[in-house]
Amino acid sequence: RKEVEQDPGPFNVPEGATVAFNCTYSNSASQSFFWYRQDCRKEPKLLMSVYSSGNEDGRFTAQLNRASQYISLLIRDSKLSDSATYLCVVIQGAQKLVFGQGTRLTINP
Amino acid sequence: DAMVIQNPRYQVTQFGKPVTLSCSQTLNHNVMYWYQQKSSQAPKLLFHYYDKDFNNEADTPDNFQSRRPNTSFCFLDIRSPGLGDAAMYLCATSRIGTGRNYGYTFGSGTRLTVV
Question: Is pLDDT above 90 for B6?
């Protein structure tokens, strides 16, 4: 079983749609959780951290369910510029950043 | 303003010819990481340095080595590159204190082609 698993995608949605990604992690001792965004042939960039209480940043909402070891990302009112690969990321211990395989999102005009 | 700098951005090397990729940082972060990312795959951790302590991942091939001569610099050495080593190599840094990680910063990556 992979340490971090994501929806395989790809997701193709029209502009303005709401889209949700899911992610599960296997190590119950994982402490910190993030969503990263990666554009084609670029490095991953932090989109947002994920907290147990859930957190929102503009059109983006992240949720964490520790009991189910499940993380989600919701994008509302999607824009063309949201097209990218979204990576679920978990920190194991204090040092190790583990990535999911990523979900490719394409927003269509 | 670049804080984690990787050189070169693109590297072409011959099959079997040793190659070194470099990473430098101006953040004074105590941890530096090397990730390998192949097309349409997640970044995979090869190894990391926590200060001077080297931490190798169990499945990292012996063909991959790393050096960290000081806080600012870290190198990835591929002793005998094979065609399967063609990938994007990402350097990242983080600051860790009292068991807490304060966040990661990635370099722009070096895309390695093996011919």
Answer: yes
Among A24, A48, A45, CA closest to A35: A48
Section A27-50 average pLDDT: 89
Calculate what percentage of chain A has a pLDDT beyond 90. 68
In degrees, rounded to 5, the angle at the alpha carbon of residue B51 between the alpha carbons of residues B49 and B56 is 20
Alpha carbons B19 and B53: distance in angstroms, whole number: 23
Cβ–Cβ below 8 Å for A43 and B55: no
The partner residues of A92 in beta bridges, in order of sequence, read A96
Interchain proximity A99–B43, CB inside 8 Å? yes
> Are B90 and A44 in contact (CB < 8 Å)?
yes
Interface probe for A, chosen from B37, B50, B56, B110 (most Cβ of A below 10 Å), is B37
Mean pLDDT of chain B: 92
pLDDT confidence band for B95 (50 / 70 / 90): confident
